[in-house]
Amino acid sequence: MNALLIVCGLGFVSLLSEIINFKKGLHAVVIAGLIAAALTVAQDWNSTAHYFNNMLIFDQFSIAFSCLIMIVAAAWFCLAPAYFIGDAHQTDRTALVVFTIVGAIMMVSFHNMTILFLGIEILSISLYVLAGSNKESFFSNEAAFKYFIMGSFATGFLLMGIALVYGTTGSFDITKITEYVTLHKADLPGFFYVGLFLMLIGLAFKIAVVPFHFWAPDVYAGSPTLITAFMSTVVKIAAVGAFYKIFSNCFSPVQGSITSAVIVIIVLTLLVANITAVYQNNVKRMLAYSSVAQVGYILLGMISDSVKFEGPLLYYLASYATTSLVAFGILYMIENSKGSTSLEAFAGLYSKNPFAAVCMTIALLSLAGIPPFAGFFAKYSVLSMAIDGNYIEMVILAIITSLIGVFYYFKPIMAMFGQRSEDQLHFSQGQKFIVGVLTLLIILMGLFPDTLISLIG
Amino acid sequence: MILLFLILWPLVTALGIYAFQPANAKVVAFVSSLIEFFIFLSLLIQFDSREPGAWTYQVPWIPSLGINFIVGVDGISLLLVLLTTGLVPFIILSSFKMPRQKSPNFYALILIMQMALVGVFTALDGFLFYVFWEMALIPIYFICLIWGDENKVRVTFKFFIYTLAGSLFMLIALLFLYYQTPGNHSFDIQALYNAGRALSVFQQGVIFWGLFLAFAIKMPIFPFHTWQPDTYTVAPMEGTMLLSGIMLKMGFYGLIRWLMPIVPLGVKEWGFTAITLSVVGIVYASVIAINQKDFKRLIAYASIAHVGLISAGLLTSSRLGMQGALIQMISHGILAFALFYICEIISNRSNTRIISSLGGLRTNAPILTTVFVIVILGTIALPFTSGFVGEFLLLNALFHYNVILGAVGGLTIILGAVYLLPAFQYMMLGKNHAPAVDITDLTRHEKIVLYPIVILVFLIGVHPDPLLHISEVAVTDLLEVFSTFSANVK
User: Fold this and answer.
1) Which residues face B354 on adjacent strands?
2) What's the pLDDT at B183?
3) Residue A282, beta-bridge partner list
4) Lower Cβ count inside 10 Å, N or C end of chain B?
5) Residues of A whose CB is below 8 A from B137
């Protein structure tokens, strides 16, 4: 809870710093504040704290996920000074991002549907603005508008769903909903299931799975690259965390009826996202489809055994976030130097910028699920759980789509190493350092997954 | 501990190489691989085949999932580690005059490859084995992608996709076995053995194909071989040597350690099919090899033919077949290295590998020709060369298994002569078809690389006992498991 207050405070500081003319140190203050907040929240590791009549509960799950969100956000801030410093809207942008993080923390620690709704809205509304923050770009405007229309549509579904569930169970509280559903499993009214599926649709929009993913590629490709990085890391962790909480808690008694719907979503996501990604020539767009596909694998783990999946989920999201930061970080540098994120911009990167090429390659190999990198172990834990849960057909599908994944993840690799080019990239020592550290983390997480994977659950 | 050192040392030097001048990278890599080899020799001397467990090193790796870092050796893995640690110094030495010699990245990749290979041959935990197996793929892919010839991007990617597809099926098979182990599940090889042997015949058959696919693609066996000729041709010389000299042995080792003891009934059920495929591959590849114009491509097809015989012999699960396969793996590694090196020497000097545009090279290069003929005779398994011992044992085993298959497999020797000798004759003897080509004889450096190989070819051919002796106990143990199990379950 203190962490939430600290992050909120950071948001207000960012807003006020425009007036008190404290722009210079703001970036460093935000990073320090986020790390401090992460440490604060980590201190309560062994206790479960309840706030506001159980509206917010910080148990191990929420603590682990909030920490992850704040650490990833801090790493993102380190990578993204160019987005803030020197810009006329530095303070506004900082405040918006910080408030997004507030929403994200609420989304992984809610215990009440209203808080879930509030969290999603705080997160989304800031993001709508951030997606359009490159005001001169036509695509950025398109992204913001599309995101806003689609996002509010999804929110409507979610709200309607929550209302119907409330109508059945008479409560917003997750525990009470669970108790009610368990007790009255046999005579739940039809509109309860309607509510259930409306919530599922609303959340599926937010985690961008097929067929509710149509906004994702355009929004990801149109937003400024650093904001795309933020969306596919911090926002993804929060959205998937919220989905998991809903799926494994209040609907666990009726999981059977949801599972079949989720299986359809998984099949579609794995197939459509992976196959579409193969045809992308723009690496940014390709990474957008890849991020849709990754959620498909996460859902497969979730339906296999939602209780046991808690640890692997944290690991999966942590590894995916680290990898994404590296990939988008390098993508940003390439865009900065060459003005394009197309595959051609990657050609021959290895000959003059071996460091960037090697980091990008490690990130892509990790995304493709090749050992010994973190992404492999993440995918491995999903496949392992799916085999244990007897989803053999799904495992074979996941294997085939992973192979399809190799087709597109290797396109930039082949361009980087298979051709020659004399272009130099410009990137600062600080960015180089952060990217290097994150790349090292990808390897270390892959070699020593045990600490993270058995942290919770 | 010594095994851990053998695995970590190449990795440490692969990173340490960047502390030196790029021009010195090759020397650092060479010295590192020599140290590795001598450390291994010290293990080999102390090794007592009655107590293979003495060298096992074990630490928990991912305890929550029952995954441990276990490495150990018995006679069989010892031979393969011998091949790996022995051949890598030669491969590095042979690269000293190549255009890649100034790149530390190149040598770092070779050393990482060596680490992964030693890991594959010593891992005693299914998950660890899989990780090393895949880790061996990454460096070789980049060696071929960065330093390969034209068309490399498409060809190397095909290679990558093929092998990755195979190994993913292996992963699923291993995972399935993992969930058959009792209690909290474990990837320990002994636990997997017990789990696999307890399965029904049908299930063992399924597991057999899951694992066999991965190994068959790696070797490669007909009809999973289509990546191989292109990749061997396009890859830089050192890459081809690593691929054919050491990496394809991962497939055989997988058969011996991770397939045959796990699903003995599966082998019984499907062994005949797999052997038939191998034998078909022998004839198929040999016939194609006859028509090859590019000498490197010819050797690539020859490799498929030889590999087919090894896998056929292994799958007979007899003592002759196993011992023959082990000897032949060593011999094939040495000979493939020498063949590809000679091919590179010729093509570097004459700027072509096309057989028909070469000829009469003997006039200016008598020593090269002599070495070449010895290597070729070894490859077509003339008595008193290393190739003979292995092929003799393998064919013998195949005859005992099935006379027709044995007879067809025996064609490998005849066909080997049919495609290799004319090519040799055309390139080295007779008139010089390309008078512009001014070929010089072996340099001192090349002699240093090739003479030990020639000696080894004869040494193994005349006196193979020490090698057979190393693996004898391990093979006996394996056969015992095999026969007792087959007797218990009808």
Assistant:
1) B294
2) 82
3) A342
4) C
5) 370
